[in-house]
Amino acid sequence: MTRRRRWSFWMPPLEHPPILWLDDLYRGSLTDIGRLTVWGMLISSLSLLASGSYLIAATFWFSFFSLITSYILGFFYRIPETFRVRRDGLLKLVEGNTLHYRVEIENIGKRRLRSIVVEERGLVPELRPVGSPPVIAELEPGECRSVTLRVRGTRRGVYFLNHLQVANSLPTGMIKWGRRKHVHTEVVVEPLPLTSNYSDLAPITDDREHQFSTHAGSSTELIGIRGWRSGDQLRDVHWRATARRGELVAKEYADLTSWQRMVWLDVETRSASDEKILDEMLTVAIQFARECSRRQIDLTLCRAHENRFICLRAKDPKQYENLILDMVGIESVRKTNFQELEILFSGRRSDKKIVLMFLRLDSSRRALISTLRSEGYELVIWIGMSKQIPDQWRQDSKIEVWS
């Protein structure tokens, strides 16, 4: 699960745990009528401080005792734990969009269930419910019904829906008494795609004459078959395809060492503005990874994580799916050790071109760039803060700079 961002007083209200707990209690325990009653009680209590009117006092005490009475009576009418609930599997949506998914509830008891309200509890700040929860008027014994719930993803990340509440508001329709069921479901909120085209970051040649071979001895992996050409060897004949087609067919191999790319993600942030740039940088990285997957490129992604470095390699579609999922859930770190990072790069001589994605430029990052250039690496640099790009880099043919 995506970790919480570093605490700050200026975070959005729901990022503060007490406010998030009150919001969950407010949504999960009160119906629409109950919420109006609570607000009426709060407004009348504030008015009492100003006027002391008997009418306002009567409104306050009426609202207060109505809530207390509803709470006590609701305990005796609460729904029995004779049901099963199921939620859809892995859920995916794009940042800022609304996700619609189904929840099934089955009555496995012998009593009829009435006025059933199904909703999510314990939501993280990045997943917000949309609209009022659906209500099932009646559910007969053995009957199974499905409802549609909606949540909106406000920030990219990997989150979990853990608790479904099944409740009723009998007899007063103000307080919801329910039971929670632990139903674990993963939600992936992908970042909103950018309008700029970064798919050609670290462009890849399409000259397949220099990338492919029919000789297994000089290549690493069989990637397909093609028609027989002059100069092909007998050992490279694909006999099954030849028999099926009625003509000679040769095996085709790919030299994967010439199709490798390495990406370094700078996830060290210092402020909320850096967090926004990090989200944009990850969006670019995800688009680039998808382009590499389409072109069947061996991609290595490296980043800092706490006090160590993590390098993930993707080669086939399944590995790319896991790699992109990891990028969606990446969170920032406080400090990056660039001296150890130089050691990491020095041991990866097979990666001829390195894509460096920086949030900013400072002395340690400039030193890393100089070291890699001196060792003969071909660099592609993406910098989130475009004002920090030196002018001489834009005219340097050995460095590609994006922003």
User: Which architecture name of the largest domain does CATH use?
Assistant: 3-Layer(aba) Sandwich
Encode the helix/strand succession as letters. HHHEEEEEEEEEEEHEEHEEHHEHEHE
Q: Supply the CATH superfamily name of the largest domain.
A: von Willebrand factor, type A domain
Number of beta strands: 18
In words, what does this structure look like?
There is one protein chain. By secondary structure, this protein is an alpha/beta fold. 30% of the residues lie in helices and 31% in strands. The protein folds into three domains: 13-30 and 77-190, Immunoglobulin-like; 212-254, no CATH class; 258-402, von Willebrand factor, type A domain (Rossmann fold). A six-stranded mixed sheet has the order 15-14-13-16-17-18, sandwiched between helices. It has a five-stranded mixed sheet with strand order 2-9-8-4-6. It has a four-stranded antiparallel sheet with strand order 1-3-7-5, with no helix packed on it. Strand 17, helix 9 and strand 18 form a beta-alpha-beta unit. The protein is flat, with a radius of gyration of 30 Å. The model is unreliable at 202-220 (pLDDT under 50).
Task: Give the helix/strand layout.
Blueprint: H1 17-29, H2 32-50, H3 54-76, E1 83-87, E2 91-94, E3 98-107, E4 113-121, E5 127-129, E6 135-139, E7 144-153, E8 157-168, E9 177-190, E10 212-213, E11 221-227, H4 239-245, E12 249-254, E13 260-265, H5 272-294, E14 298-305, E15 308-314, H6 317-328, H7 338-346, E16 353-358, H8 363-374, E17 378-383, H9 391-394, E18 399-402
Parallel strand pairs: 2-9, 13-14, 13-16, 16-17, 17-18
Antiparallel strand pairs: 1-3, 3-7, 4-6, 4-8, 5-7, 8-9, 10-12, 11-12, 14-15
Helix pairs in contact: 2-3, 5-6, 7-8
